[in-house]
């Protein structure tokens, strides 16, 4: 796993490295080398380097010098003369570079800038980095749209200029990078908010050779899950299993209004490897679900007058629950009094539990002002996995706003820290999904846009439940097991898009390609881990 840092954590890391004997000036030299190396991959003959007032600009000045030494024509565009730069380390490298074989243009008009940029094969964006806050001010508010309009390859240093490195927010304008060379460690804003849209391909500049020895001493906002991290999490299928010992899942879901959600969750659980899946659903929709799922036993439990779980459903489901390796509750169940009793009852069982969709909304009604105020309601010995999207997560924490990765992580941490259990994991779903446990925040491989379709969450919940059932509790890191499930869901999005076209994928397509998605996840993990693949 690769650490992802907040801005404050990055500054702390730089200080720590300085105490170990490597100065910030030396880091800037390495940052410039990393940026120049990334630009050189384009094999350019002419490069324009846009620099700002700060140390991000300093990295750009260093890179400009290196590129010109490689025989590349380099234009450096700066808002001020090198002598006027306030940061001593950036001023030093700017003066050094200006005295060498580069053309320096200070404070160009928009037209002059466009004509300089038009001569370049690649542009290096070293305008603003982690020191940037608020809305972009002139002259950069003029430079950035002019650059974007030209559509040239752009390599951004650390973060695309205009992107808030902490939140991923873009207030006004932001460089649309082809590639970003982030420094020391990726910044959380690259994965949050609008970061993924603007950053292009992200690579990390290795500025310090002993990083592994010090990075553990700085807290990190999150960690990126790499394919090789998942090698221990594939459910294998020994020949001596039977349908029960493979892993059994009870899907408590559906209502007369939303029977399809129960069908999709159950089918996904079966396709994701559970040997025995059963659905418990209100009587009112049981027959319809039976017809749709010939391989799955469907148990009807008492309905209320609207065809949702009724008051007597909770005890009927509790009797069933303890016979299964995992219970998934929520898809399509709607929020009713009977549903709330059902969720309360399931939380009290000792069976691993996945709560999704309206089970989460029922849970958030169990406490006013945030469920984390009453952790005894959801604190339990057995694993509990919550799979909220932003709105559901917001309701769980008393309607605190949750609108980007950072706020989702914060809200999820409130829940897991209040319960304080290793077995509680929140899969905070969004364009960038975070998996939040009491000690870890993991960022699994992010899924394609084809996953943004109704029912996609029901499929993910089924995959998670199946993997818990198949593991039989033999798991040392629930966050990684959840990352595996999210990776399979993402690969299903890719595989379904390849078959159906990205805009045409519907949730049932994801279920049909789950077998292929699991194979893809496994192959990628083995390849990343350097394990030989058979033919
Ligand atoms: N992480 C590392 O190991 C290293 C990082 N380096 C680079 O340093 C920058 C951070 O540098 P800093 O000087 O703190 O900030 P910036 O250059 O990002 O920007 C500061 C500069 O920008 C001006 N500014 C701030 N907000 C705005 C705005 N809204 N509009 C216009 N201008 C704005 C402000 O006035 C300052 O002058 C980091 O990203 C790395 O690239 C080092 O090289 C060392 C190694
Ligand atoms: K930048």
UniProtKB/TrEMBL annotation:
InterPro entries: Carbohydrate_kinase_pred_CS, CARKD, Nnr, Ribokinase-like, YjeF_N_dom, YjeF_N_dom_sf. GO terms for molecular function: ADP-dependent NAD(P)H-hydrate dehydratase activity; ATP binding; metal ion binding; NAD(P)HX epimerase activity. Residues 226-521 form the YjeF C-terminal domain. It catalyses: (6R)-NADPHX = (6S)-NADPHX; (6S)-NADPHX + ADP = AMP + phosphate + NADPH + H(+); (6S)-NADHX + ADP = AMP + phosphate + NADH + H(+); (6R)-NADHX = (6S)-NADHX. Its cofactor is K(+); Mg(2+). Pfam families: Carb_kinase (PF01256), YjeF_N (PF03853). K(+) binds at residues 56, 125, 161. Keywords: ATP-binding, Isomerase, Lyase, Metal-binding, Multifunctional enzyme, NAD, NADP, Nucleotide-binding, Potassium. (6S)-NADPHX binds at residues 55-59, 129-135, 158, 261, 332, 389, 458. One of its GO terms (biological process) is metabolite repair. Homotetramer. In the C-terminal section; belongs to the NnrD/CARKD family. Belongs to the NnrE/AIBP family. HAMAP family: NADHX_dehydratase, NADHX_epimerase. NCBIfam families: yjeF_cterm, yjeF_nterm. This is Bifunctional NAD(P)H-hydrate repair enzyme. It comes from Collinsella stercoris DSM 13279. The gene is nnrD.
């Amino acid at each position: 796993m690769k650490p992802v840092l907040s801005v404050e954590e990055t500054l702390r890391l730089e200080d720590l490295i300085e105490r170990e004997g490597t100065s910030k000036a030396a880091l800037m030299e390495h940052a410039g080398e990393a940026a120049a190396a990334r630009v050189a991959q384009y094999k350019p003959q002419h490069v324009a380097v846009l620099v700002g007032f700060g140390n991000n600009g300093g990295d750009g000045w260093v890179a400009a010098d290196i590129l010109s030494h490689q025989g590349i024509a380099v234009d450096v565009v700066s808002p001020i003369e090198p002598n006027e730069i306030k940061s001593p380390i950036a001023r030093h490298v700017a003066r050094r570079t200006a005295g060498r074989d580069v053309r320096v243009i200070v404070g160009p008009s928009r037209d002059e800038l466009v004509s300089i940029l038009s001569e370049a094969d690649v542009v290096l964006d070293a305008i603003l980095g982690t020191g940037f806050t608020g809305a972009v001010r002139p002259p950069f508010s003029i430079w950035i749209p002019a650059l974007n309009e030209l559509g040239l390859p752009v390599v951004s240093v650390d973060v695309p200029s205009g992107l808030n490195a902490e939140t991923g927010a873009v207030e006004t304008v932001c460089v649309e990078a082809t590639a970003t060379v982030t420094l020391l460690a990726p910044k959380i804003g690259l994965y949050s908010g609008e970061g993924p849209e603007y950053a292009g391909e992200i690579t990390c500049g290795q500025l310090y050779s002993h990083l592994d020895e010090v990075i553990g001493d700085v807290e990190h906002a999150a960690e990126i899950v790499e394919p090789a991290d998942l090698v221990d999490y594939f459910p294998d299928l020994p020949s001596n299993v039977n349908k029960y010992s493979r892993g059994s899942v009870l899907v408590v879901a559906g209502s007369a209004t939303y029977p399809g959600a129960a069908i999709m969750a159950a089918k996904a659980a079966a396709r994701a490897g559970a040997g025995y899946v059963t659905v418990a659903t209100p009587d009112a929709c049981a027959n319809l679900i039976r017809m749709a799922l010939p391989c799955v036993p469907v148990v009807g439990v008492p309905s209320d007058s609207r065809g949702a779980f009724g008051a007597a459903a909770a005890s009927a489901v509790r009797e069933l629950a303890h016979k299964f390796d995992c219970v998934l509750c929520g898809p399509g169940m709607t929020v009713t009094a009977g549903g709330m009793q059902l969720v309360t009852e399931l939380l009290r069982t000792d069976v691993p539990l996945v709560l999704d969709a309206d089970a989460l909304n029922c849970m958030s009604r169990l406490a006013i002002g945030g469920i984390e105020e009453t952790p005894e309601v959801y604190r339990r010995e057995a694993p509990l996995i919550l799979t909220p999207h932003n709105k559901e997560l917001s309701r769980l924490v008393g309607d605190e706003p949750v609108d980007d990765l950072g706020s989702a992580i914060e809200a999820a941490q409130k829940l897991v820290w209040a319960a304080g259990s290793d077995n509680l994991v929140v899969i905070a779903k969004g364009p960038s999904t975070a998996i939040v446990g009491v000690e870890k925040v993991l960022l699994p491989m992010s899924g394609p846009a084809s996953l943004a379709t109704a029912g996609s969450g029901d499929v993910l919940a089924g995959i998670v439940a199946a993997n818990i059932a198949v593991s039989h509790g033999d798991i040392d890191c629930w966050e990684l097991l959840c990352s595996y499930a999210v990776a399979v869901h993402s690969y299903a999005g890719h595989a379904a898009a390849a078959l159906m076209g990205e805009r045409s994928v519907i949730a049932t397509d994801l279920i049909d390609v789950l077998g292929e998605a699991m194979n893809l996840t496994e192959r990628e993990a083995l390849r990343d881990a350097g394990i030989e693949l058979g033919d």
